[in-house]
Amino acid sequence: MHVLVGDAAVALGLAASLIGMFTAGAAVVKGRAEWMRMIPATVVLLVVAAIVAVAAMESALLTHDFSVKYVAEHGRRGTPLLFTIATLWGALEGSILLWALVLVGYVAVVARRFRNRLEDPMVGWAMVVMFGVTVFFFGLMLTSADPFVTVADPPDDGPGLNPLLQNNAFMAFHPPMLYLGYVGFTVPFAFAIAALITGRVGEGWLVETRRWTVFAWGFLTFGIVLGAWWSYETLGWGGYWAWDPVENASFLPWLTGTAYIHSVMVQERRGMLRVWNLSLVCATFALTILGTFLTRSGVIASVHAFSESGIGPTLLAFFGVIVVLAVGLIGWRADALRSVGRIDSPLSREGAFLANNLVFGAFAFVVLLGTVWPLIIEAVNDERIAVGNPFFDRMTMPIGFVLLFLMAVAPALPWRIADGEVLRTRLFWPAVAGVVVMFASLLIGAAGWAPVLAFGLAGFAGGAAVRQLVLATRRQGWRGLVGRTNGGMIVHLGVILVAVAFAASNSYLRQAEFRFAEIGDTATLAGHEFVYRGAEQLVAPDGRIDDQLLIEVDGVIETPALTVFPFAGRTIGSPDTRGSLYDDVQLSVVPTEPGEPVVVRVTVQPMVVWLWIGGILMAVGTVLALVPGRRRRPTSPSTVVASAKPVPA
Amino acid sequence: MNVASKPAWLLVVGLAVSALVLASIAEGPPKTNEDRVRSLSEDFACPTCDGQSVAESNAVVAQEIRREIRRQVDAGASDEAITELLISSYDESIDLRPRSSGVVGLVWILPIVATVFAFAGLASVFQRWRNEATLEATEADEVIVAELLRDRGDTQ
Questions:
Q1: Do B23 and A343 touch (CB under 8 A)?
Q2: CB-based contact, B50 to chain A, within 8 Å
Q3: Cys-Cys crosslink for A252: which of A52, A213, A287, A436, Cβ 3.0 to 4.6 Å?
Q4: pLDDT tens, B44-83?
């Protein structure tokens, strides 16, 4: 029954997508604008199809209909409700279904937002592109990633989700957030392609897509932070970011998307960087598909790749189509894309944005190269190598320094050309803040030039952002906290917190493994005292067994455990983390033979909590940036040529 | 007097540099053997666990490698010796640091080359823009401007 309904819904979705794509396509090609009136009905059909398909799967999961292969492979009767619902995005076919739902949601919102302008060829072409993408994803669900397959001989119960995915509630929220971000980049991509096809490559399409991009970027950011949080709380080795291929796949579009959010301002103000901005939008979308290919096809092994299947070649082909389409169209429109303006001085706001873009480009290049290098080496040299943490840490550290420096200087730079005197005045107090932070960190025991430089640059950049916000709120009251520039400064503050926390927690991590033979045994690490107080076993209602240790940390009992999932035949660690604003203590149990002394791995890291606070601040800043602030007209005095010489008499 | 004068800036920069010097000679908490084990175990891949490092993983083989690193560190072996030992007991794909020679080493070089080229390209574009900006007015331009100014003067 579920399979029947689900398959019918997917088929309906594919049909609606095809109808939408061809109707919109015919309307714009033949100039028959009235055909576009069919689009709203098509979108409604598509929304119904996506909702019914997802409802069919959720219903199958909730009613434990093991005749559905996906449920038989990933469901289980005893799984708690939250994780049963989340099983939809716990494996490949279901996550494609979620992707399709989110995508259809974006299509519907775009269609509604532009309902009065559907006859505009720009909107028409954007709809063609978006329907094209839905054709791909619904097509995928009818072929290599079919979520609705019948099991001839249904089992009585299933194995349940991968235990790692049901040990922490973050997992229920991280993928939907990430997908809202990932999939959201489809909208700017569709408008970019539409702008190229219609030849209206001026600034109009940017205005349409800027907010969509910021919206998607905000969710992607939050999704990445939640993922790091999950990995920190679940894996229990004191790390939150391991430059794993799956993490890199989500980080790559974030990098190009961030570059775009900055460089788009140059185009709005100065009409420049048209090719570059179009390329960034297309690259961001293409990277979401490439990332999905790299992590879902099994070509790269990753602990986070919770599923593999045969969808690799299809995704790779789709990626190829996107790249060829984008490059071809940009080449075709090369003449129209020639910029009208030029940049007067490298020492200007737009000069800083160019530098920002180069640095983000370099960042993305390093991450992409490191991720695919083992594949390339295996192909050309028939040799198996690995590229991991040490490579990424070393290569990205200088990039981080440059980005912090730019974050400090760029907000103080005026458009067009900067005067040295103005810069000296504007940057003075932020620079003082940076020096104060450096000495403060030395006083509380920081050592090593790299982390102290990071703290100093962070203080410098933080000072610049705060200066900007103070000036804005003095001028405009609470409105000084909203709008793109001010919201952006709050996002900067979040990024700075993340950078400081990253530098501090990585540089001053302390870790030790303690062996406790008898109750009352003690140990110390980094000023914390640990006392072994015994062990106990808890059985949860869903059947999992927690073998937990009672460890007193500075007088308070913590309970790290090894959790046995008998139904999945796996044992995983359930670390216990105690956080404070100053440092985190994480305990995880190292498995030992029965009868041997218990072994606990203790990790003490300063400032980890500030990663999550920084992430939340970035999300808050993004929301504030989306609230319309006081908008400057393009003719406002600040865009007038500052360096104009007086007319000779 | 402006607080942000040149001497004040020199003081700020001087203080920043001295903070960095202090930081690089400052002694952090003493590096224990445990710390070396941790940082070394981040440099090696757990052979059975899909891209996790030995530090991350709790798989049996990862624990075994951690214990081996621990034994070597306690015995006073150098980082290089431990790396060699682990590569010979497993294979080169256990080392998460790609070697810096041969084709494999390109992974360290390419990003630097690309960044240098990109900045050089940007610099040359700025140079071109600057050259365009310093266009001299020709005599014909001067005549047109002079005429316009005269016309405007007439009408006022």
A1: no
A2: yes
A3: A287
A4: 998 887 778 898 887 888 888 998 999 999 999 999 999 9
